[in-house]
Amino acid sequence: MILPPYEPPPPYVPPGQRLDHPDYIGNVKDFLPRRVTMVRNQTSEALGFNIRGGKEHFCGIYVSKVMPNSEANNLGVKEADQILSVNNLDFKDIEHSEAVKILKMNTVIEMELLYFPYGYNKTYEKNRLMSANSQSSR
């Protein structure tokens, strides 16, 4: 198994700059795991959100877009939420295609979510690094 390279933590925001700093979120409750339950009438109905990431990308599954006025939006699902589990199935080490399959095959979807913008932003950095590496090897 190949481990991804070490990633340093996000930059420290000094206490005196936190109130006005755009990267500082002072409400710890925003970062606690939470559960939401979505109910669809049919599996063919839209989920109301998109995902990105997965085991093959060395990261978890993250919500990448939430459709306005969708049930997901009304339940508080937001971009950068990491999906920790769906119907008690662990999503922390799952391939993207398997996650999509599980989400789409259920009409009742109980998700455990964790707002984790740092990990979500890393999904974009990994894609840039992978595309840069593939272009430099040509």
Which descriptors apply to this entry?
138 residues; alpha+beta; single chain; 6 strands; four-stranded antiparallel β-sheet; 24% helix
Strand content: 15-25%
User: Can you tell me the overall shape?
Assistant: globular
Please tell me the overall pLDDT: 85
Order of helices and strands: EEEHEEHEH
Alpha-carbon Rg, integer: 17 Å
Tell me the distance between the termini. Answer: 25 Å
Pfam families: PDZ
Organism: Patella caerulea
Domain PDZ: 35-104
InterPro entries: MAM_complex_regulator (IPR051109), PDZ (IPR001478), PDZ_sf (IPR036034)
Question: Can you walk through the features of this model?
Answer:
The protein has helices at 71-74, 96-104, 117-136; strands spanning 34-39, 49-53, 61-66, 81-86, 89-90, 108-115. The chain is built from three helices and six strands. The chain has 138 residues and is α+β, with helices and mostly antiparallel strands.
Structure described in brief:
With 138 residues, this protein is of the alpha+beta class. It contains three helices and six strands; from the N terminus they run E-E-E-H-E-E-H-E-H.
SSE order and pairing:
Blueprint: E1 34-39, E2 49-53, E3 61-66, H1 71-74, E4 81-86, E5 89-90, H2 96-104, E6 108-115, H3 117-136
Antiparallel strand pairs: 1-6, 2-3, 4-5, 4-6
